[in-house]
Amino acid sequence: MNTDKQGLLTCSASGIRNFVSVHDVTNINALVAKALDYKSDPLKDKTLGTGKRIGLLFLNPSLRTRLSTQVAARNLGMEAIVFNVDKEGWAMEFEEGAIMNGTTVEHIKDAAPVLGTYFDILCIRTFPSLKNREDDYSEMFIHQFMKYAGVPVVSLESSTLHPLQSLTDIITIKENISTQTKPKIVLTWAPHVKPLPQCVANSFAQWVNAWGEADFVITHPHGYELSEEFTKGATIIHDQDKAFRDADYVYVKNWSAYHDYGKMPENDPGWMLTEKKLQHTHHANVMHCLPVRRNVELSDEVLDSPNSLVTKQAGNRVWAAQAVLSEILKPC
Ligand code: CP
Questions:
Q1: How confident is the model over 39-60, as pLDDT tens digits?
Q2: Same domain for 105 and 176?
Q3: What are phi and psi of 253, to 5 degrees?
Q4: Which tens digits make up the pLDDT trace of 62-106?
Q5: Secondary structure (3-state) at 164
Q6: Is 67 in the pocket of ligand 1 (CB under 6 A)?
Q7: Can you tell me the distance from the alpha carbon of 111 to that of 132, in angstroms, rounded to the nearest whole number?
Q8: CA gap 3, 5 in Å, rounded
Q9: CATH of the domain at 236
Q10: Which pLDDT score is estimated for 331?
């Protein structure tokens, strides 16, 4: 990916640009500044996308990502079309060389180029199976879209990452910083009723580490270690109370095991974030990507307290998406 003087995304030699991880951005602060500019003046580039169409393909459910990306696209003058591939499309095959004599009806090699003729930007949500780590971490689904669509691809959450969420999280942290010193950010595992992907936690760790402007701690029970590919640079502490000491931000998220892939080695309800635990922190702001299981991951008292940034955070999804789409729309 090439960048301009401010480090923002510019056209690559082939004219195809994608947003699937932090590696597609060389200057996070410039992108955050752009998002905050849009927050103060949402329609400042209202004609940038005139005559352009964005396709939002969902293979999995979504509330925030689906709506915030549509609002962002419309703020830039684009026409947004949503397609629930899982419910309304043909069952899609992603394996190269597959003999399609089973349940899949259409190969990505045939579908993606067609979608590329309908849309100027393609956005895709594909969750992991949580059955086979190698398959999920190969990111085959989104890579196949990038390979065959012929237009820029934006991840709306893939098998291992959720970059639009993480950009939003950095925006939210930056706009709420009240300390002159590096903020202490703690990502904490939380209990859940079922195993969830590692995407949000991986992605948050990847972006905070790349941003480099925080003391970053990750806390989780033994058995929930994430891939070092994303956590390298963070301090890992298994004692949650100790991890919370003097924290300015506590980011709460459940994830399933990476090593014993997709399993829940334990599900201790004692890891739920409560007001009592927040007392160890430096009046920490509390974040969660939503949707959240109330009184399982976080208590009502925390979610409904002034410390909770979750609504503001979800609102910022629009500005993150708008900043990324506008960078992709920039004329070459
Ligand atoms: N945080 C997030 O991605 O929310 P949705 O799953 O509702 O899009």
A1: 999 999 999 999 999 999 999 9
A2: no
A3: -160, 140
A4: 999 999 999 999 999 999 999 999 999 999 999 999 999 999 999
A5: helix
A6: no
A7: 25
A8: 7
A9: 3.40.50.1370
A10: 66
- 172 and 69 co-located in one domain: no
* Cis upstream peptide for 306 (omega within 30°): no
325 and 215 inside one domain:
no
Q: Are residues 136 and 259 in the same domain?
A: no
Give the ligand 1 atom nearest the CA of 290: 1
Q: Which domain holds residue 154?
A: 2-161+317-329
Atom 6 (ligand 1) nearest CA? 62
Calpha distance 10→201 (Å, rounded): 28
Task: State the average pLDDT over residues 21-49.
Answer: 96
Chain CA centroid to CA 242, Å: 27
Predicted pLDDT at 15: 31
Assign 29 to helix, strand or coil.
helix
Beta carbon of 288 within 6 Å of any ligand 1 atom:
no
Q: Do 249 and 232 sit in the same domain of this protein?
A: yes
Q: Which helix (H) or strand (E) holds 28?
A: helix 28-40
pLDDT of residue 178: 85
Report yes or no: 252 and 288 within 8 Å, Cβ to Cβ: yes
Based on the domain organization, do 50 and 114 belong to the same domain?
Answer: yes
Cβ count within 10 A of residue 21? 22
pTM of the entire predicted model: 0.95
Q: Which atom of ligand 1 is nearest to the CA of 289?
A: 1
With the most atoms of ligand 1 within 8 angstroms of its CB, the residue from 58, 290, 312 to mutate is: 290
Report the separation in Å between the CA atom of 97 and the middle of ligand 1, taken as the mean of its atom positions: 33
Confidence at residue 215, expressed as pLDDT on a 0 to 100 scale: 98
Burial class (CB in 10 A: 0-12, 13-18, 19+), 223: middle
**Same domain for 253 and 212:** yes
User: Helices 28-40 and 163-176, interaxial angle, to 10°?
Assistant: 70
CA of 99 to the centre of ligand 1 (A): 34
Q: Which of 86, 127, 289 to mutate to test the pocket of ligand 1 (most atoms within 8 A of CB)?
A: 289
Q: Give the count of domains, the chain.
A: 2
Max intra-chain CA distance, the chain: 62
